[in-house]
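Backbone-to-sequence.
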């Protein structure tokens, strides 16, 4: 294996580590509180720069996802404004009727960001 390639099993383990607990106690544990097994601790100590860079990349993607969720209410208002301007009777059903298939898909994406619970941080998801 070239040294520049991240190993998914180590990245997944690092993504599930409770780093706050580790900083406070020096003990490795999962985010759900389970302590790392000896095998898991051994894997963590084998982490390479590539594994840590991939962890950083995965976390950055997750933070972007959370930011999009936070911005979704304003984004949906801006998105709907273009349709509401065209209507005499301004309601969501009439605005939805004006949308193309791609615009409905974007509306659904923004609405989903607003109403569904946030997904947990997991590797290779975002």
């Amino acid at each position: 294996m070239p040294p520049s390639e991240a190993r998914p099993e180590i990245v997944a383990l690092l993504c599930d580590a409770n780093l706050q607990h580790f900083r406070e106690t020096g003990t490795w544990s999962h985010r759900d509180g389970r302590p790392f097994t000896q095998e898991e601790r051994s894997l963590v100590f084998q982490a390479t720069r590539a594994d840590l860079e991939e962890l950083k990349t995965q976390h950055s993607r997750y933070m972007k996802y959370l930011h999009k969720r936070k911005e979704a209410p304003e984004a949906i208002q801006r998105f709907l404004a273009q349709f509401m301007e065209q209507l005499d009777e301004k309601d969501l059903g009439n605005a939805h009727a004006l949308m193309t298939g791609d615009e409905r898909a974007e509306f659904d994406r923004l609405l989903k960001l607003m109403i569904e619970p946030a997904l947990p941080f997991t590797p290779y998801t975002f």
